[in-house]
Amino acid sequence: MRYVLRQSRTWRGVTILLLRYSEIGLKSDPVRKRFENQLRDNIMSMLVRDGVEAFVTKKGARIFIEAEDTGKAIRSARKVFGVASISAAETCSSDMDDICRTAAAYSRGRLAQGQTFAVDARRDGSHPYTSIDVAREAGSAIFLENESLGIKVKLKGPDVTFFIEVRDNMAYIFQDIIQCHSGLPIGTQGKVVADVDDDRGLVSAWLAMKRGCRVIFRGSGDFEALKNYDPEMRRADEKNVRYALAYVQGKGIDGIEGFDASEYDLPVFFPTVAMSDEEVRDMADKIRAGFRCRRGIRSADCLPQGFPQQPDDSFKVPATIFIRFLPASRGDRKGLVSSSRKAARRRSAISRIVSRTRSSL
Fold first, then answer.
1. Separation of alpha carbons 1 and 7, rounded Å
2. Alpha carbon distance 278, 270 (integer Å)
3. What is the 8-class DSSP label of residue 110?
4. Which of 119, 235, 315, 346 is placed for a possible disulfide with 139 were both Cys, Cβ 3.0 to 4.6 Å?
5. Domain 3-92 - what CATH class?
6. Long-range contacts formed by 265-270: CB under 8 A, 24+ apart
7. Do residues 12 and 92 make contact, with C-beta atoms less than 8 angstroms apart?
8. Is the Cβ–Cβ distance between 320 and 271 less than 8 Å?
9. Which pLDDT value is given to residue 343?
10. Domain made up of 191-330: CATH architecture
11. 298-340 pLDDT, tens per residue?
12. Whether pLDDT at 254 is above 90
């Protein structure tokens, strides 16, 4: 089978997967490039583990996957932390006439009698037209192609939305946006030792993985459930533990009472400290289920049962507080409080930037 990374490959008239990331785009250029490369490598590792034959290409702020089994590729890629969403897109050149022809053909069978539709277009690169021009011309082509159905244009709250992304000399046309886990690529934030003996330990390790940590598994918990999200995860031994930067433990608010940080030589994190037992059990069940697609590749079918479809209403981890205990030798209480306040201000600023970025997408 082929597991190939190709930096220059042209798709015309074929269906490929368009993968987006989220907060990686907030990083500086050198850091973003490193994170993008790590994300690309993690995607390839996941495809290899799941036996998916595919071409993987990184171009600009997008990663593209061409695979024979598109549904299997989606199920594999959406487990990778750092991937915010996936779309199965039809491709064509960036020529306006070609975009209109492809959009008209793509719309066949996707609109029912009397439905309303809209075209959401955006560009990246230099073109002799604007995004509004693309939306207007492609929308006109779709309308004429399906005029017999009595369809209407409705820019706000349409029944069907067609998305068009024009990037350099290529255009990508799609309808569904499949929401993924987002977060940071595993391997970008160092290694941590996670004690996993129960559901709370499992969820704590998963949340650390979502923030980019490479988990070293320790305990008698469900190793395979976590390995589904990181094919390179290993059990703890004398060698790999030495490279850990912190410990991750599954304790609730009652469990940290009387905790003695002086017993540890590294910081200790409790990601699920603010979660109730019911929330932990519910999330652990979803983690073990693998968030797998059940039918086809459309957005409604690929999301787990009970998870809303739209980005604004997508599943959110219950309010989670990461409590960190440092060994006594790492700093006094005054310094830690000052650092915590600065970190809180940074997180608040980043949240505002993320909100503005999401509203513009």
1. 19
2. 17
3. T
4. 119
5. alpha beta
6. 265/327, 266/327, 267/324, 267/325, 267/326, 267/327, 267/330, 268/324, 268/325, 269/192, 269/204, 269/208, 269/322, 269/323, 269/324, 270/204, 270/322, 270/323
7. yes
8. yes
9. 56
10. 3-Layer(aba) Sandwich (3.40)
11. 443 444 333 334 333 334 444 444 555 555 444 443 443 444 4
12. no
Please state which of the four CATH numbers 3.50.30.30, 3.30.2130.30, 3.30.70.20, 3.90.700.10 is assigned to the domain occupying 95-168: 3.30.2130.30
Inform me whether the pLDDT recorded for 357 exceeds 80. Answer: no
Q: Read off the tokens for 178.
A: 């499949």
Which residue do the tokens 């975009």 mark?
A: 99
Residue spans of the domains in the chain: they are: 3-92, 95-168, 191-330
Q: How confident is the model at residue 351 (pLDDT cuts 50, 70, 90)?
A: low
Contact 129, 96 (CB under 8 A): yes
What is the average pLDDT score of the chain?
Answer: 82
Please give the torsion angle defined by the CA atoms of residues 64, 122, 87 and 37, in that order, rounded to the nearest 10 degrees.
Answer: 30
